[in-house]
Amino acid sequence: MLKLTKDKLPELLYPFLVMLAAAVYAGILCSRTAPFTEGWYTYYSQCIHSGAAVYTDFEYLYTPAYIYLIALITKIFGYKIIVLRILGIGVFSVLALSLYFVASEIFPRWIACISAVTAALFLQSEVVQTFYDYARVMDIFSVLTTLLLLKTVKRWESNDKKLYIYISATAILNSFFALIKQNMGCIYAVYVLCLLVFLSVYYRLSIKTALKRIGLYIGAFMIPVGVCLIWLLANGSLSIFWQSIFTNAVAAKGALPAILFGWIINNFNSFKACFTEAMILLALIVILSLRAEKNQKELREHPYPAYIFALAASAVFFICSVSEKTADLISAKSYPSPYLIFLVIFPIFVMLGISCIRDWFYKEYKYQKYVGIFALSGVYFAISYGSGNSGGLPEGQAPLGVILIIGLLLNNIVSEFGGGYWPEAELLSSVF
């Protein structure tokens, strides 16, 4: 039986408060908004239930996991929109909880709580919100894949038996990620494979060991994909499926070169508009990191700011739901652009990579303890690049970047003013 001790209380309260803030937010918006995209998948479900086959009888430009998930839910619970909206509250709450667990792999729990709530709210700053939309379900799989990837990366040097479980689980979740949205899931998989090769070289693993682990990842990734392809082959829609998700989807976005690189050129002005602010924020993180390295105070938890923040966020959501003037006042304020977040995180990813290469060359392994942050910043880059293939960087694909920025700032600020040294505070001061 679990005993609720003083030490255990924060472990339970943090995830609860993260889910509470997300559920309150999603619940209020679900009861007061009617997005114009809502109802598309209900219609698709009706088509499927009437005997129509995806790809064969109607066009669908994504992989089929999400559309059949909604078809299953509507088959069981019916077509009432309230059912899917309740599902959306659950999806958003689970997503926020997943973000918390990812953040807690890198930062202290109280900072993970604050950064997860902030990231979840930034994720929903897009113009149109459907909480049970394929993008939010895809986000759950991308974040859970990232969580298991971080656990894998931390054990890559060792022969821990759990390592192979984490490799397999990461690959399977990555596969489901790709079965919801092919381009982002596949780009994520390519990044993971590159990361695992990089870490194998960095730790000087034998070729046999590296190939065994990377081969396990590829094999586990292909299990859900293989089952899907066999099922499509059996019902005679494999060739149409292939044409839809590649030929038609690529043509709809203007050919492969435009998809891979056009978004950078087309959104150059968006990068330019926030460049100054991004460099100031990056400089602030570096300066605070330099200060934090000198302080080196003993790490301790600071739970009360996290409790206050999560509860205050929930209260603000409620106040905004009953006071239109308050909501207008808050919504009128500017918020960080996803391009700003990209311009802050990408240099960190690049510089950490260069530092690890320097580490390997001189056999110092000074940055070994920072591979988790390196991996997470790379995941953010891969997800951002994948979302950019659809035209640009949406707010909805930036939560991992928000977690890194909030986490680094809070850790270093606390080290400067409030005590609680975090060893990784040395990170950016060493890199830059």
Mind explaining what this structure looks like?
The protein has 432 residues and is mainly α. Helices cover 76% and strands 0% of the residues. It has 19 helices and no strands. Helix 1 (8-32) runs parallel beside helix 5, helix 6 (134-154) packs antiparallel against helix 17 (371-388) and helix 17 runs antiparallel to helix 18. The longest helix has 28 residues, at 207-234. It is globular and about 65 Å long. The termini are far apart. The model is unreliable at 419-432 (pLDDT under 50).
Average pLDDT works out at 83
Give the CA-CA distance, first to last residue.
Answer: 49 Å
**Quick one: how many beta strands?**
0
Rg computed from alpha carbons, rounded to a whole number of angstroms: 22 Å
Helix content: over 70%
Shape assignment: globular
What structural class results from the helix and strand content? mainly alpha
Q: List unreliable stretches of 5+ residues.
A: 419-432
Tell me the β content. Answer: under 5%
Question: What does the secondary structure layout of this molecule look like, with pairings?
Answer:
Blueprint: H1 8-32, H2 40-49, H3 65-77, H4 81-104, H5 109-123, H6 134-154, H7 161-180, H8 182-202, H9 207-234, H10 238-252, H11 256-266, H12 268-273, H13 275-295, H14 303-322, H15 324-331, H16 338-362, H17 371-388, H18 399-418, H19 426-431
Helix pairs in contact: 1-4, 1-5, 1-14, 2-3, 4-5, 4-6, 5-14, 5-18, 6-7, 6-17, 7-8, 7-9, 8-9, 8-17, 13-16, 13-18, 14-15, 16-17, 16-18, 17-18
